[in-house]
Write a structure and sequence with these properties.
The chain is of the alpha+beta class and about 150 residues long. The chain has two domains: about 80 residues, Arc Repressor Mutant, subunit A (Orthogonal Bundle), CATH 1.10.10.10; about 55 residues, 2-Layer Sandwich (Dna Ligase, domain 1), CATH 3.30.1490.190. It has six helices and five strands, in the order ααααββββαβα. The longest helix is centred in the N-terminal third of the chain and has 15 residues. It is found in: Cytoplasm.
Length: about 150
Amino acid sequence: MSIQHQLERAERLCEQRGVRFTPTRRHVFTLMAEHKGAVSAYDLLDRLRELEPNAKPPTVYRALDFLLSQGFVHKVESLNAFLFCDHFAEHHPMQLLICNHCGLVIELHDEAINQAFNLQAERHGFGITSQSIEAHGQCRQCRAEKNTGD
């Protein structure tokens, strides 16, 4: 799906939800959509300054907070980075696989994992208010390169 189409979807959702999709929020959304994989707020700030020369760290963090609240991006807690979500029109379970070698982040949407996790929390009398399931390791390509000696 093109970035322009994603942007139009996001604009429609913001309109339906009655929230403002400001120019800065649009810029950060577009930068996130263009970026493949997780990106730090400061890397985003460097790119945003090409569009908005006076942008400061709070500018990016406020935009990211908005994008998080709308489900347009996910926070990769262990990397202190952010990941664009292609599935932002719907609420979905999320688990992340993170390659320690190349930095690839794979977003999973496994309802069974989500249900098992929530069931365990309930069994322990725990009320989940936010959730981040992240696993670190090596992706298929990095494992293959390691096995072939590259």
